[in-house]
């Protein structure tokens, strides 16, 4: 499933952008300048994404946490969508996969896989639900979606991911229509060519019949 990247602090992601920025501004492309530009870009991009995702709602971050002695479940409640960036480790990537907003946070013991959902804290039994997550108890899908719903669609709407998908399908539809149209034109031309060949053959037959009639009359 395709991942729509929102933000990452992966150094290599910004390397080419930083070098181009230095070249465009006639600044020496030294390692020190590249490093400074990359860290500037990271901070700038992060602030931009925080502004983009400034949306107040109750959110739960559910994490599959990688520890030195195994994996455990955990959760954290957030009050604003842009607080997802407060869940961080050494290396972080935030993205939308399908309809789920996710983050992969890498640290020295392993990787934390985090999924974010809108949570309805007003529903009865929500505290028991949270306690069961904390206590590593199994939770059924029906119970999970009683309190939580996907936030990926909202994020895609904010970033216009759906528009990009629509444009892609619209372009594919145009290409398909053109292909069908050209195929129809080709078929019509083939039929017309066959018709002309048939007409020519019939004309030859008629001319031949006329010739033999005239020949018999002359005899």
Unreliable spans are: none
- The radius of gyration over CA amounts to 33 Å
The number of strands is: 7
Integer average pLDDT: 88
> Sheet bearing the most strands, described?
7 strands, antiparallel
Query: What general form does the structure show?
Result: elongated
Indicate the proportion of strand residues. 25-35%
Q: What percentage of residues falls in helices of 4 or more residues?
A: 40-55%
The helix-and-strand class reads alpha+beta
Measured distance between first and last alpha carbons: 86 Å
- How many DSSP H or I helices? 6
SSE run = EHHEEEEEHHEHH
Describe what is shown at a glance.
54% of the residues lie in helices and 26% in strands.
What is the strand and helix layout of this fold?
Layout: E1 3-8, H1 11-24, H2 31-52, E2 56-67, E3 70-80, E4 91-97, E5 100-107, E6 110-119, H3 126-134, H4 141-147, E7 148-150, H5 152-159, H6 161-218
Helix pairs in contact: 1-2
Structure explained in plain terms:
- This protein is of the alpha+beta class and 219 residues long.
- It is 54% helix and 26% strand.
- The chain is built from six helices and seven strands; from the N terminus they run E-H-H-E-E-E-E-E-H-H-E-H-H.
- Strands 1, 2, 3, 4, 5, 6 and 7 form a seven-stranded antiparallel beta sheet that branches.
- Strand 2 and strand 3 (70-80) form a beta hairpin.
- Helix 1 packs across helix 2 (31-52).
- It is elongated.
- The N and C termini lie far apart (86 Å).
- The mean pLDDT is 88.
């Amino acid at each position: 499933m395709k991942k729509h990247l929102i933000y990452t602090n992966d150094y290599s992601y910004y390397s080419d952008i930083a070098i181009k920025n230095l070249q465009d501004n006639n600044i020496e492309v030294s390692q020190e300048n590249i490093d400074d530009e990359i860290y500037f870009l990271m901070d700038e991009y992060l602030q931009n994404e925080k502004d983009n995702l400034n949306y107040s709602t109750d959110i739960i971050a559910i994490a599959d946490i990688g520890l030195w002695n195994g994996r455990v479940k955990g959760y954290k409640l957030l009050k604003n969508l842009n607080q997802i960036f407060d869940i961080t480790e050494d290396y972080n990537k935030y993205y939308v996969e399908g309809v789920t907003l996710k983050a992969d946070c890498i640290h020295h013991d392993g990787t934390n896989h985090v999924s974010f959902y809108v949570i309805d804290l007003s529903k009865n039994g929500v505290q028991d639900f949270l306690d069961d997550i904390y206590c590593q108890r199994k939770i059924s899908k029906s119970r999970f979606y009683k309190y939580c719903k996907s936030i990926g669609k909202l994020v895609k709407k904010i970033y216009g991911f759906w528009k990009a998908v629509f444009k892609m399908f619209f372009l594919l539809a145009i290409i398909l229509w053109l292909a069908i149209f050209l195929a129809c034109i080709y078929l019509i031309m083939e039929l017309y060519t066959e018709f002309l060949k048939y007409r020519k053959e019939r004309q030859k037959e008629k001319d031949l019949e006329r010739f033999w009639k005239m020949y018999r009359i002359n005899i």
